[in-house]
Specification:
Layout: H1 2-14, H2 18-30, H3 40-50, H4 53-64, H5 71-92, E1 97-99, E2 102-104, H6 106-130, H7 135-159, E3 164-171, E4 182-189, H8 196-219, E5 223-227, E6 238-242, H9 247-260, H10 262-269, H11 280-303, H12 305-309, H13 314-337, H14 343-366, H15 376-404, H16 408-416
Antiparallel strand pairs: 1-2, 3-4, 5-6
Helix pairs in contact: 1-7, 1-8, 2-6, 2-7, 2-8, 2-13, 3-6, 3-11, 4-6, 5-6, 5-8, 7-13, 7-16, 9-10, 11-14, 11-15, 13-15, 13-16, 14-15, 15-16
Family: Belongs to the riboflavin transporter family.
Function: Plasma membrane transporter mediating the uptake by cells of the water soluble vitamin B2/riboflavin that plays a key role in biochemical oxidation-reduction reactions of the carbohydrate, lipid, and amino acid metabolism.
InterPro entries: Riboflavin_transptr (IPR009357)
Length: about 425
């Protein structure tokens, strides 16, 4: 039973950010088709940030109407919206319309907003539901949330990209009645392994897997436990629910021992919290680093990635997008086993990541003629610099969280989530 719940929790976490991550890794195939062209990532960044209205509404509901909002109902609703949006994207992602005299990808933008709304809202609805389970399943949930970036990246790598090759083309010059032909070289794009439509159907299937896992978790038999940990008042005892909770017997013994000796029972049952051994200046520095690296990797760099990568070719852009999605959770996982809480180490990583990001920004500013254009070395540099920036970002977040708190759940929260 425990193994089954671990698998379900991982599958449930897969649906948290899989749609938005899938959009980013599919951009190399979309950007050459939609009328926005190289500006498409900038539009996508703004739309995703606007979708944060979802978490804001959920927070206001909890504040203004406590107890009225039911997380299971919201989860089912947003996952159904996600599945429907992915299916509609498969059919209408390339449909355009005229807005204010300009051709725009209206259908793509609208459906992208709903997908972003689903993923952003999942951050404040999935976790409260998972808190009903024992802590060991929450860690598994965060592993699944990390896979929401890893799996689309692997699928995108298997899909490939439409690489252009030069082919000879013949034609007769206009107004020339002779038998002479005009030879020229034209770009011909090779088809990927499967189409963009199939990719969006795969995203919909991943969302269906997450929805099915949620239904299974919600239908699991629950056991109730009595906890003696006083979170609100000294005299209050609350009841929490969990699935197959191994701590129920321990808490029951704690309650019994509390009746025999209240002081000894509380000492045995109350968990020890991490001590705050950092000053105000250190805390400000840590959160400033988190603010900077998230602003750079979630807003600044993705919006100009087309300008920094496409001049080196579609393959370079494709590898940057797909490998970044794969490398981010891998780097976070490795960082969890090699923890370093030194603020000097944190500052060094931040400086290195900023340097790599600055190289990408410089290449974007020099576009369409960046350094080493047309050479293999240039393609290797732009892909590796993107990956290095994201790896440094991942490790920095892990260092920040482990510096602030030693709680394992908090570590997985910030390390395996790609977007915040």
């Amino acid at each position: 039973m425990a193994l089954l719940i671990h698998l379900l929790a991982c599958a449930f976490g897969l649906g948290s950010w899989v749609a938005v991550n899938g959009l980013w890794v599919e951009l190399p195939l979309i950007v050459n088709t939609l009328p926005e062209g190289w500006n498409l990532p900038s539009y996508l960044t703004v739309i995703i940030q606007l979708a944060n209205v979802g978490p804001l509404l959920v927070t206001l509901m909890h504040k203004l109407c406590p107890g009225r909002l039911k997380e299971p109902v919201v989860i089912v609703f947003i996952l159904c919206v996600g599945v429907l949006s992915c299916v509609l994207l498969a059919f209408f992602w390339d449909r355009t319309s005229v807005v204010a005299g300009r051709t725009a990808s209206t259908a793509f933008f609208i459906l992208t907003f709903f997908l972003s709304l689903v993923d952003c809202t999942s951050s404040v609805t999935f976790l409260p539901f998972m808190m009903q389970l024992p802590a060991k399943y929450i860690t598994t949930f965060y592993i699944g949330e990390g896979l929401s970036g890893f799996v689309p990246g692997v699928v995108a790598l298997a899909q490939g990209v439409g690489i252009a090759k030069c082919v000879n083309s013949t034609g007769t010059p206009a107004g020339n009645n002779t038998d002479g032909n005009l030879w020229s070289l034209q770009a011909e794009y090779m088809s990927p392994t499967f189409s963009t439509q199939v990719f969006f159907f795969l995203l919909a299937a991943m969302m269906v897997i997450s929805l099915s896992a949620f239904f299974a978790l919600n239908k699991m038999p629950r056991t109730y436990e009595v906890s003696t940990e006083n979170l609100v008042s000294e005299d209050g005892v609350y009841v929490s629910s969990g699935l197959d909770n191994p701590g129920a017997e321990l808490d029951g013994e704690a309650v019994k021992s509390k009746g025999e000796g209240e002081g000894e029972g509380e000492a045995q049952s109350r968990p020890r919290l991490a001590s705050a051994d950092y000053s105000v200046c250190q805390t400000v520095f840590i959160y400033s680093v988190v603010l900077w690296i998230n602003a750079a990797t979630n807003g600044l760099l993705p919006s100009v990635q087309t300008y920094s990568c496409i001049p080196y070719g579609n393959l370079a852009y494709h590898l940057s997008a797909a490998l970044s999605s794969v490398a981010n959770p891998l780097a976070c996982t490795v960082a969890m086993f090699f923890q370093n809480r030194s603020l000097v180490f944190l500052g060094l990583l931040t400086a290195l990541g900023t340097g790599f990001g600055s190289y990408n920004m410089a290449m974007a500013a020099m576009s369409p003629c960046p350094l080493l254009q047309g050479s293999v070395m240039g393609e290797v540099f732009i892909v590796s610099e993107t990956l290095k920036m994201l790896r440094k970002k991942s490790v920095c977040v892990c260092v920040c969280v482990t510096r602030v708190s030693c709680q394992s759940a908090a570590q997985w929260t910030l390390s395996l989530c790609k977007y915040s």
